[in-house]
Each structure stands twice: as structure tokens, then as C-alpha cells.
Design goal:
Elements lengths: L1 H37 L25 E5 L5 H12 L7 E6 L2 H4 L8 E4 L1 H7 L6 E5 L5 E6 L3 H8 L14
Parallel strand pairs: 1-2, 2-3
Antiparallel strand pairs: 1-4, 4-5
Protein name: Thioredoxin domain-containing protein
Organism: Nonomuraea mangrovi
InterPro entries: Thioredoxin-like_sf
Amino acid sequence: MQNVVNSLAVLSFLGTVLLLFAFAALLRMVRDLQQAAAKGPAPAGTTPATRSVPRFASGDERPTFVLVVTETCPMCRERASRLMEVSGAAAGNLVLLSAAERCAEWVEGEAVTAIVDATLLGTIAVGATPTLIKYSPSGEEQWRRVVGSNADLDAFLEAAPVTADERVTIR
């Protein structure tokens, strides 16, 4: 019986040693990623410095704000509703972009232009939705932000102030 206990103890010790080596390798990978992130952005050839979309150029010298949404995203629907609410106070032209016709129904009216175009959506290449992209009057992309709350959308649009009821509190 003592031999069995000793064998189990040795095996558990070896297992612990193997886990330590695996943990050390994982830690090294994390450190390498941290060093790569600390060096700054990727080289200039990997991503375009500016993206130009002539379709979003405005003739009125105001920027164009494009909210990219998907039909299966509940937060996208909420942001589209808020986009309609603040459309009068927005500092630019408002566009809702999606690949699904159903999303265009979320912003019925003239205040927000709904564009359903899967090809354009693929060209813009948004990684997460809802995302707001600001285009200059000439159609050059200025920035893009993931919109996590109505307060974020208001701040990005430089629209009407957010009420206390709409602020998101993280606890």
C-alpha cells in the first residue's frame, strides 16, 4: 500500500512540474504580446491610413456618421432607436448601414438614411456591431468607435446631453 501512495505522490509531483512548464510558456507568450503592443501600431503596409468612401461624401460640408448594425444584435436595434431620437441634434448627416432589409425598418423616416448594401459593408470591414464611423465631408474616414451605450452614441455624435436615467453605471 505504501508503494502505491509513493507512486501517486511522485506522479502528482511530475504533473505539477509539467504544469509549471506549461504556465511558464504561456506567460512568455503573453509577455511577447505585451511587448509587441507596447511598440505601437502595426507597420504602415498592413492597414490603410485612411479609408475613403465616396458614397459618404456630403455636399453640405457636414460630416457623415455611419452606424453599422446587424439584424441579430439587440444592442444594434437600441442604438438605431437612439439615433432616430437624437437625429435633430446631430452635428452631421446620419446613415444606418446594414446587410439586412429588416434593419432599414428601424430608422423609418427622413432623418436617418438607411443603406442596405452587403458589398459596402464588406468593404468597410467592421469587426463588431454596433459601430459608429465618422466620415469627413469629402468621404474620408476620420474615426470608428464601437458604441456600447446610448450615452456613448450621444457623445460620439456630439448630440443632446444624456439624462441621468440613460447613463450606464458599472458596479
